[in-house]
Amino acid sequence: MWRCRNQRHWIVGDARTGISLTEIGKSMGSVKIEDKVYDDVKERKTKGHNIKADSKLLNYIREHPLYKRYLKNPKSFTSSESELRNILKSTMETDYKTLSRNLDYLIKIIQDYGKEELIDFSKKLKEQLGDIKEDE
Questions:
Q1: Residue 59 class from Cβ within 10 Å (0-12 exposed, 13-18 middle, 19+ buried)?
Q2: Residues 38-56: b if buried by 16+ CB within 10 A, e if exposed
Q3: Residue 89 region, left (φ>0) first, then alpha (ψ -120 to 50), else beta?
């Protein structure tokens, strides 16, 4: 699998975020497995993938003091870098790429489960993460 991802670029992703085929991978896959339908694989993954862990993550966000502070005053909400890193379960040494990947994963979970109340909050976090990158 490593060779398919890193050398041949047939797949992208990892075990945590999910693996999907690239266009090259789809063409190579169709040659090898005679045009299997790929949509059902994605649908099954979305329906049954680690629901318990995802719900724990969503509950963690809902109970986090940063989210509660956001609910009190969404328009003027700001957070410090340490608060942002805390809600993303990372340290001050964690690089921007990892922070961004963690936030993208969180946003994906929020969208997959249709948690509208968390979408605006995650957008604010994304904006503030961009500010951190500019500071680096």
A1: exposed
A2: eeeeeeeeeeeeeeeebee
A3: left
- Kindly report, residue by residue over 94-116, the tens digit of the pLDDT: 888 999 999 999 999 888 888 88
Tell me the C-alpha distance between 91 and 56, whole Å.
20
Rounded to a whole number of angstroms, the CA Rg of the chain reads 18
| Cα 133–Cα 134–Cα 136 angle in degrees, nearest 5 | 65
* Amino acid letter for position 62: R
Domain assignments of the chain as residue spans, ordered by start: 2-47, 50-135
Instruction: Quickly list H helices, 49-115.
Output: 51-63, 65-72, 81-87, 96-112
In single-letter form, the type of residue at position 115 comes to: K
pLDDT tens sequence across 22-69: 776 666 655 444 444 444 444 444 555 567 888 888 999 999 999 999
Task: Identify whether the C-beta of residue 99 lies closer than 8 Å to the C-beta of residue 90.
Answer: yes
Say how far apart CA 77 and CA 89 lie, in whole Å.
20
